[in-house]
Amino acid sequence: MGKLFEIIECHVMVKKQDIMVLLLVLFAPWVNGQVAKVDSSYSNWYYEQRLAYFNAMPTVHDAIVFLGNSITERAEWQELLADNKRPILNRGIGGDNSFGIRARMEEVLRGKPHTIFLMDGINDQFRLLPQEVSIANYRQIIQMIKTRSPKTKIIVQSALPINEQMTNEPYTKNRNELVLRLNTKLRQLAADEGVPFVDLVPLFQDEQGNLDRSFTTDGVHLIPTAYMKWIEALKERKFL
Q1: Distance between CA 82 and CA 85 in Å, rounded?
Q2: Lowest-confidence range among 22-26, 74-78, 186-190, 224-228?
Q3: Is the pLDDT of residue 27 over 50?
Q4: C-alpha of 149 from chain center
């Protein structure tokens, strides 16, 4: 183990947290004494095209950035916040995960955002990524923001439950319990890092803890009007 740290530190200039994420990936089969498969992939044609689009856009300074996966991407944040004085940027990519978000933070931070609303997690759960790895990636993302854009406000938002009765794909089954556990860890991470945590789950869950059918048509994604409740909740907390 010591030799591995020496090799990494000699040939790659990374922080201690980066090394720990790498170790979690390399040795994930022994996380918590259980066998676990780690899928750290994130890049595909859609990710690359959307990232190329972001990179080609002019740099926007002091913006409010919504960062995440398809649940973030599908919102018309600019219209929902048309009365806001600051620019609004949608940095959601459908299918993205904590590895993918971590990999594209340079573009996200180039304009020194005023605020970043971070919301991820469900795709990590779909691929059964060990939550220790997800939390390590989240911590890395937060640390990148603090280091490269220290004036940026960071808001960590919870992952949303899904409605498994409305989904057919095997990878969506038995995931809500994992989402609940992840959100508990995200809340603790936010407290450790001294940043706000917004629990979005109560806005959209039914009495059984599933994503309410009135807010979704596929059991995973939100219908457009659901984002109005999301924005209202952020405004009530004085984040917007």
Answers
A1: 8
A2: 22-26
A3: no
A4: 18
Q: CATH says 60-236 is which class? A: alpha beta
pTM of the model: 0.86
- pLDDT of 21 > 80? The answer is no
Digit-coded pLDDT (tens) for 122-163: 999 999 999 999 999 999 999 999 999 999 999 999 999 999
Domain map (residue ranges) of the chain: 1-37, 60-236
CA contacts within 13 A on the Cβ side of 33: 0
Q: What angle do CA 39, 219, 227 make, to 5 degrees?
A: 100
Q: Distance (Å, rounded) from C-alpha 139 to C-alpha 31?
A: 18
- What is the DSSP code string of 8-61? HHHHS---HHHHHHHHHHHTGGGGGGS----------HHHHHHHHHHHHSPP--
Q: Tell me the C-alpha distance between 218 and 190, whole Å.
A: 30
